[in-house]
Amino acid sequence: MKSSIITLAVITTLAATPALAAESSPAEARHNAIGIVAGGLLGAVIGGPPGLIAGMAVGGITSDQQIARSRVGSLESLAGQLRDEQRDLETERAGLQARVASLGEALERERELAGRAAETLMLTDGLEFSIGFRSNSAAPPETLDESLEALATLVSAVPELTIQLDGYADPRGSAVLNSELSMQRAEAVRERLVAAGVDPQRIQVAGHGAVVADGAGQADPDEWAMQRRVDLRLQSDSGERLVSTP
Asked: Which terminus in the chain has less CB density within 10 A, N or C?
């Protein structure tokens, strides 16, 4: 009798297995079938056909509980991984937001500096002044150094500015001598500017010799003193004046 009941339990279980496989993964279906078979066999041995049904039900419930616990564990593990990834993403986002804010502040500072540089360029482009020299000398005045250092600071702060140096001499002496002397004076000022920190590539020099004017043949020491000079002019790279010089 018990042998028949056991056989019935096995047949019933095998008949139920395809339905289980359709609803669960292969591993879960096998696990569930084993639980039902074990429960059904135990119930059949103990209580006959009613025990078979009850055992199969208990075996199926137990198997479902184990599968559910396994699924819960997997889902909890996955949830933990997702929380870790979320924290990492939030940390990364916070870092990116801080970097964006820092770049925004830096950009604002650069815009402010660019605006100031443009204003400075507008005010200084075309600005010029003269440096006087002693007779037959190419040495700039010693008091010039402080002014040239301030000028070097200005030029370094405004990259668009360049310096034009034009040397002159009074009409005394030969044309060759005056040409050489005027160039030496311009070169001497250039050396002082370079020593003060100006890029040599941003300085242009020229010697124009003696200044020829009406009545140049007359002896006029005051006018000669005005002619022994180097004209220094600030200008933009394009060479175009942004402001007029009176």
From this structure: C
Would you list the domain boundaries of the chain? 1-121, 125-236
Instruction: Give exposure, 91-125, as e/b (b: 16+ Cβ within 10 Å).
Output: eeeeeeeeeeeeeeeeeeeeeeeeeeeeeebeebb
In this model, does residue 188 exceed pLDDT 90? Answer: yes
CATH 3.10.290.10 fits 125-236, yes or no: no
Which of 92 and 26 is assigned the larger pLDDT?
Answer: 92
- Taking only Cα atoms into account, the Rg of the chain, rounded to an integer number of angstroms, comes to 49
Pairwise CA distance, residues 190 & 141, whole Å: 13
Beta strands in the chain (DSSP E): 128-132, 161-169, 203-210, 229-236
Q: How far apart are CA 157 and CA 47, in angstroms?
A: 101
**pLDDT tens digit sequence for 70-100:** 788 888 888 888 888 888 888 888 888 888 8
Taking the complete model, does pTM exceed 0.70, yes or no? Answer: no
Residue 164, burial from CB neighbour count under 10 angstroms (0-12, 13-18, 19+): middle
